[in-house]
Write a structure and sequence with these properties.
The chain is an alpha/beta fold. The chain is about 35% helix and about 25% strand. The chain has helices at about 25-30, 45-50, 65-85, 130, 135, 155-165, 190-200, 220-240, 260-270, 275-280, 295-305, and strands spanning about 5-10, 35-40, 40-45, 90-95, 110-115, 120, 150, 170-175, 180, 185, 205-210, 245-250, 255, 310-320, 325-335. The longest helix is centred in the first third of the chain and has 25 residues, at about 65-85. It is globular. The structure holds fe (ii) ion.
């Protein structure tokens, strides 16, 4: 029986890899976005600005505030990196979302588990410069300058797959790295970020658990994500291995429109291990980047079964425009 010895949650948004005096580059993308998601509705940037006029969000984008928030995030990332280095799990299970990286609209699994024995991280695609300067500047937070092989853990992945079958989860599996235009596709941003920034390029063998949180119509509900997490815990506990296991949630919290009230309710739920609060927010609140909070919900479902609880949690709302766009960052440890 394997032992879960730690849990970590980390945001991974591009602002974490962008100097704070360049955050406006991502705000430029927001201004062009006609469908900024906020509390279940879609807004253009001007509409959103009007809607949130009373909140004095101008104060949130003063350069000093952005500098302070950026520095606090870097401190949090360093703390998580120190923590995982000290606790030293033999393997980690990373719950992240696939954002049209391995999976495309032709075939979009709700839950997918990779059970091959390695993946690659690869340099960023050249087209990223054209797509968004704000994304390009942060690319090395996720990607490597050259191809780097990361070991994965087929044994544990298989245990999760078999347990899923027995527990009534009809999940997708992946045994081979999909091919892209220029060779095999590098592992997605949610996973690359953890190996690069949290494991500091000293990669820990891992099981990639890939969720579709972003794309309608088949995203799992918060409740189903939590149950999926419970099932993963069961699988880890029945894995016939003496290896120690860490669990990592990658992504979130609210973005590209920050909703501090929604985040506060979720964080309360995580801190109190309160299933009702964790799964009780309306599903329509989990759209766009905010949907990545479902990676945390899944991890909360795993850790609920492990006897661990939240030890540290820091919340850093990083606003980048007066319409309330940005990325609210969360950093947590479960011990
Ligand atoms: Fe993401």
């Amino acid at each position: 029986m394997a032992n879960i010895i730690c849990g970590l949650g980390t945001s991974h948004g591009p602002l974490l890899g962008t100097p704070p005096d360049m955050w406006h580059l991502r705000a430029e993308d927001d201004r062009k976005n006609p469908a900024l998601e906020y509390r279940g509705e879609k807004y253009g940037w001007d509409q959103l600005r009007k809607l949130r006029r009373g909140e004095n969000l101008e104060a949130q984008i003063e350069q000093e505030v952005k500098n302070e928030r950026h520095a606090r995030c870097q401190e949090n990332i360093a703390n998580l990196a120190n923590h995982i280095r000290e606790v030293k799990p033999d393997v980690i299970v990373i719950v992240g979302d696939d954002q049209h990286e391995w999976f495309q609209p032709e075939n979009m699994p709700t839950f997918a588990v990779f059970y091959g024995n390695h993946v690659y991280n690869r340099p960023p695609a050249k087209k990223i410069e054209k797509k968004s300067k704000g994304l390009a500047i942060a690319a090395m937070n996720y990607r490597t300058p050259e191809d780097v092989r990361y070991e994965t853990v087929p044994d544990l992945a298989m245990e999760i797959i078999m347990t899923a079958k027995n527990e009534g989860f009809d999940i997708a599996t992946s045994a081979m790295i999909p091919k892209g235009e220029d060779g095999k596709i590098g592992i997605g941003h949610a996973f690359g970020f953890v190996q690069r920034r949290i494991c500091e390029d000293d990669p820990i063998p891992f099981v990639p658990i890939m969720l579709n949180t972003f794309y309608p119509p088949n995203q799992a509900t918060p409740k189903r994500c939590f149950q999926f997490g419970n099932m993963i815990a069961k699988a880890i506990q029945s894995w016939d291995s003496d290896q120690t296991v860490g669990i990592v949630a990658s992504g979130g919290l609210s973005h590209f429109v920050i909703d501090e009230e929604h985040d506060a309710r979720m964080i309360e739920g995580f801190k109190n291990n309160d299933e009702k609060a964790i799964t009780g927010e309306p599903d329509k609140f989990f759209r766009s980047g905010t949907s990545e909070t479902k990676n945390w919900i899944t991890v909360a479902g795993i850790l609920k079964e492990s006897g661990l609880s939240i030890d540290t949690f820091d919340y850093v709302p990083c606003y980048r425009s007066e319409a309330g766009t940005g990325n609210a960052m969360g950093f947590a440890t479960w011990t």
